Structure formats: C-alpha cells, structure tokens
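dude i think i finally got it to work??
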Amino acid sequence: MSSPQPQLVTVLGSTGSIGVSTLDVLARHPERYRVFALTARERVAELAQQCRRFGPRYAVVASEAGAAELGALLQGAGLPTEVLWGREGLCRVAADPAVDVVMAAIVGAAGLRPTLAAVEAGKKVLLANKEALVMAGPVFMRSLVGSDARLLPIDSEHNAIFQCLPQPCADLEAAGVDRILLTGSGGPFRARPVDDLHRVTPDEACAHPNWSMGRKISVDSATMMNKGLEFIEACLLFNAQPGQIEVVVHPQSIVHSMVQYRDGSLLAQMGNPDMRTPIAHALAFPERIDSGVAALDLISQGRLDFEAPDMARFPCLRLAREAMDAGGSAPTVLNAANEIAVDAFLHGRLAFTSIPAVIEWVMKMAEPVELTDLDAVETADRNARALTRQVLGAL
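look at this
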C-alpha cells in the first residue's frame, strides 16, 4: 500500500520564534509534512537560510527591495523557490489550492489579511497570531461560519484549554464547564517593587524567565497585556462569557491552563514551557506526534504555585476586560494602541509604566464603531494607531 502524500504547509512568519519552532517540528516528520511557503518581514538573510534548508515553492517578504535581496541570496542555489512580496504575496501563499496547513504566526495586525485568506480558502489554520482575532473578532468568527476551515489554537494557554475540553465543544454550558482558568507566569516583574517599574529597560522587559519569545510579545508578557489579549481571544475561541474566564498567575509556566467542570473536576494540561508542544499537537490533531520536547519531570520540578494577579501591578488586564465588555471596536483600539505604545517603549521613547496609561487614554478618546466588515476593522485600527501617535507626540 502506498504511503499518503505529505501535507503541504505554509508558515506565515517563519523567522519568528513560533515559525522557527514550527520548522523544527516539521523537520522531525519529513514523511508527513513538506514546506510549501515561508514568509518573513525583514529578516531576509534568515529566510534565505530557511529556503536553502527546506526548498519551499514560494518565499514572501514585505517589500520589493527585500524580494530583490532575497532573490540575489538564492541565486545559483538550484532551488524551486519563487520570491513574492507584500500583502498580496502573503494572501496568495496562505490560500493556494495546494496548501493543506497554514501556520499563522505573523505578529500583530499585519497577520490579519493572510490569516483570513487561509480561513476563507478552507485551510487547516494553526492560529498563533492572537492580535488578528482580537482586532477583528466578530468579522473573523463570522468568516468561519460555512467555511471548511479548521481553526486550531497555538498559544500554549488556548491549546491547553482546547485539550481540556471535549471535542467538538460548541457550548460550554452543555459540556458542564463552570469556568476556564487562564494561566500566566506574571513575567519578569511579578515580584519587582511597583515603585521601581518606571526604571524598567527594554532588555529587562524582554528577559522572560520561562519562555523564549520575540521582543514585542515579551513586553506584552511583562505588562500582562499578553494575558489580556489571550483573555479576549479565549472568549471568542470558546464562545465564553467574560465571567467564565479567570486569569491565574502561575510562575513556573508548567500548567498551561485549566478547565473546571460542574462536578468539581479540574482538568489541566501540563508540560515543559516549549512552544513545540502545542505546535505538534495542532499539526497532527487528533493524532499525537513527537515534538522534540522533553517529558515533564514533576519530581525535579518540586512545586507548582498559583496566585491572583495584582491588578495595580498589571493594569493592562483591566483594560483588556473593559475592551471585551465594551465590544465593537474597543478590542481593535486596545490592540492598536498597545502595538504602538510597545514599539515606542522598545525604541526608548516611552517609559514602561506609561504603556498602559497611553492605551487607556486612547481607549477613552477613540470613537466606538461597529465592526461590520474587514474594511471597518482596518479603518478602526488605522485611526487608533494615528490617535496613539498623537498621544505619544503630546507627552
């Protein structure tokens, strides 16, 4: 009997931490998966190295100049790789009829259009870009209705929740779920004196104690905005009311999230803090494959701690809940303001403690709108970014 053909995979954001972890898992299973397309924004040299190793049909970069640079780097390598650029190129490799699986790992709003293109084309979409769902929640979820697409969460927390729920699970109440416990490490400043947080440097904020992540996501973890965005995402992914989700600080990052049932049972998904575990789970679901991650040794781990989040230390959690309660464009504004504020912090133009202050000002100033379609989402996003830049300019 002949072996099944390998599934073709597009990795959106292949040079980021999630993309690199995805390629590691794919490389462990060449009989099951083959890389169809790789994309990167600016890391052209790294993308060229990935192309030489995996030989994709397409490689996509952000700009025409970047495409020329990549083409020059690949010249003479004897690869079948065609170089594309821009949003059109991203959407093309996400929706190509040949593609079976799309890893959506582009950070921020830039990942929205290609991720939606994959959904509309009926792909198996591994969602690592939480911002796309947060900023376009109603529009994104409507796009799944009537689509053949399968959306599988990659964030370790949402993947854990998914694993702790019966599948399929369209109704938490019918499944006997009382609440979802969304865990977070508390980042590098969980115990640092609040009065000292204004001194935090970008390098300190990016030094996560447990996870290896990109700089933007690392800052989001330090402010716990990452958990705020995940709170909104969990409401959308699992059709949960805000009151059904509780954020719990768990410094060891071993319990990735939990689901509490009506009968008193509490199911937890546990494992070493390595993104290859949820990536491998989603890639092969409902099967299980080797991820390359070592088994969890609870004896050597010794202890697991849990505590309530300090809302005075982490005001971004409150802002995210307020945005979810407000609905409409409020989560879009929250995400846009956060992206601009975090970028300003990383470039030395804003104090760490001013990130939530700027976001709150923008949320109060932005005019709420209904998100009727993708154009409305992008207009709200664009206006919120402009407003955030005005606020930053006035500081």
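The radius of gyration is 21 Å.
im so relieved honestly
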